[in-house]
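Quick entry, no commentary yet.
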Amino acid sequence: MNTAIALSLLAGCGWAVNIVLVRWSLDRTSAPPLVGALVGLGTAAVLVSTVALISSQPFPDATTIGKFALVGAIAPGSSQGLFVSAIGAIGTSRSSVLVSTNPMVSVLLAMILLNEDWQVVVIVGTLFTVAGGALISWDPGFGFRQIGVVLALATAFTFGVRDVVARQFSTTSDASPIWSAAIVLSAASLVVAGIALVQRRRKIGHDMKMALPEFALSGVAIAVALTALFGALDQGQVSLVAPLSNAAQSLAVVALGALVFGARERTNRILVALVLVVIGGALIATA
């Protein structure tokens, strides 16, 4: 197994742990989700920045900092506001259905903008992983509200742009993945903090106190996931990294969800989805 594949799988598992921890935290606190996201991102930024500072990796120049700060502002910075708004409009599972299409966006943008190869096996594998991720979250019989659909698809698009831009910057700069992740997380934290301050204003202090104990653990998962993702994008093409990371995330979410939340996470629909995800991941890994 090459480094890009291993880091892609690690990133997907990290995102899955984050999703489960966030869901667990939301069940235990009345803190607004956006403030919980701020605590998670802030914790991750502190952790990764600390590791970067004590590492032997050279400090990036101003141009590199600006580039990766832009990535952070796009996702998970501005996308967090979009995603929270989508959840408010159409719910978490419906939003996840649409956001899980982001590997398709990543692959198509990479092929168009980065001239990555149009490999049939990668396209087919991506379709399988996206279909599996969507099937896991799909709730039959729900009529989507148009604004929620737009917001969720916009979130998926920002994730796709993040992967492509991060890949481009990684191949044209000498910044290490740990510094890239530190810059992205710091920029994202500032963006989400600005949104939270505008929305919550005088309540932000109280909200932070409620969210900090519960959501801090998710920051550890975010730190691992994003650093691994940038390490993978530094080593491999977007058309490999994005679908594999999504496949690992889908598999791990189901496994952890069944373990933490019980039998309601183990259904025939989810088993079919797992088969699709495994097939898709296997196809991409052989490309």
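second:
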Amino acid sequence: MLSRITDSHLNTQRAQRIEAGRQKLAKAEEQISTGRRFQRASEQPTDASKLLRHTRRLERVNQFERNSENARLWSDTADQALQSINREMIRARTLAVQGANETNGPEQLKTIALDIRAIADSLITLSNTKVLGRPVFGGTTDSSDAYASDGTYQGDFGIVRRTIDTGQVVEINSSGPEVFGTPDIGDPMAGDLFQMIRAMADAVEAGDTSEIRRGIESVDTAANRVASSEGRIGAVSQQLDSIDDRLGAEKISVGTRASKLRDVDLAEAVIRLTSAEASYQATLSATARGLSVSLLDFLR
């Protein structure tokens, strides 16, 4: 028994074919206009899930890069300050050696002592070097300065950390006492760098060669302490160089994979659009011919 195909059924099929062609054409146009393979996750659920993972990883990599940049700013600023501190210590030592010369008269000794005291003031300024408004040698303090003008430490011993990769944290600061030593009220020459330099200036002005020589030895000890801090910062810089290279490579790799999932191939998209247009026009043409058939056509 033959089943009867009604005009209504034929028209429904025609409408479905036209709609399917229209949607295919619209999708091809949308891909070209947006540059994206899909607009909604429901269109490509598997690729959308992969793209989401890659996007989240890229966001984390970008955050790690920002953390690393901040860590480098801290370490570079501290390193420059330590180099300047080291130069000032060398100047102080040189002046002390000059002051130990017993041929100096009172006026010469006073002039040398003034120069050494100026170095102490310069060291106070360097001890308050800042990064983004925070003292690099102040630990985690909220104070604007690590040291007061008299050399009193106003910071704390908090550690400044930055997360530069998953499970990888770097410590980027040295506290003031780690760099400049700790004060000694009873024996300033054995105290922190500021006490020591000022005590050495007093010894030079008094012409006390024994204390001057002791001060020179103390400066050498302090120089070793500063060098140790420079070494720690150098190790941090090397660690940051390594992580920056790795993060940069990962960013390119993950970005490439994300792009393949997200971005449309323009050449292929143009071919699909041309094909969709031709298919849609053919469907419309065939439908128009089908609808033009009349009863007279069957009676001929």
